[in-house]
From TrEMBL:
Single GO MF descriptor: DNA binding
Gene3D superfamilies assigned to the protein according to its UniProt record, in alphabetical order: 2.60.200.20, Winged helix-like DNA-binding domain superfamily/Winged helix DNA-binding domain
Protein's name in the database: FHA domain-containing protein
InterPro entries for this protein: Cell_Proc_Reg/RNA_Proc, FHA_dom, Sig_transdc_resp-reg_C-effctor, SMAD_FHA_dom_sf, WH-like_DNA-bd_sf
Location of the FHA domain: 24-74
Gene Ontology BP term (one): regulation of DNA-templated transcription
Protein source organism: Ardenticatena maritima
One family name in Pfam for this protein: FHA
Amino acid sequence: MPLVLVGLNPPLRARTFVLDARPWLIGRDPQSDIVIGERFVSRQHCWLEPDGAGGWIVRDLGSANGTWRNETRVDQEAPLQHGDTVRIGRTYFLVFDPQKQLPVPALPLPEMHFDAVRGRVLLNGEPLIPPLTPLQVKTLRALWEQRGVPVPVPHLVNQLWANRSPDDVRPHLQRILEQVRERLRDPYELLIQYDDIQDAYVLTPTPEEAIQVLVPHIGI
């Protein structure tokens, strides 16, 4: 069964890998077939291998942080099927059959809370370390509270810099949004898109919408 891997979040977002009839090594080592240069990934992290019966398996190579299939840690090896997700470090992949409709991965959205007293962000109850800057927290909160709804740039500017012209601070706002994207790399809750017709930013709240945005960028 032919399978394709597509990256769901940076640094491999929308990158596709068509699995041919050979093992694929994933790891931090530059000689790997799929290189993930992050500290949570082992040099030789896992293999993707044909199972000899027309299917594929993922085999962990004793990695420090584990290989996760559908958010369950792989104990030595596990079969791969259309619609599965694979997490290696903080990088997510969707596994799919190119002859079928692109599935919506079954990933839970993290819970996000804002501690107004301490000015910090909590993901799934854990504080983000190192913390975001106050302007980054305000920007993220404004988008999170209106997730799925375009937030006009003038509204964001007013939240961050009262009585400032949007044109004066637009480059600064863009830099803040890029910094937030870089800090919080989970695949869905921070899919921040710019709507040039409404001059607004929208934070995509659901996997379904995230996949719809991702599809046009997938090349097979």
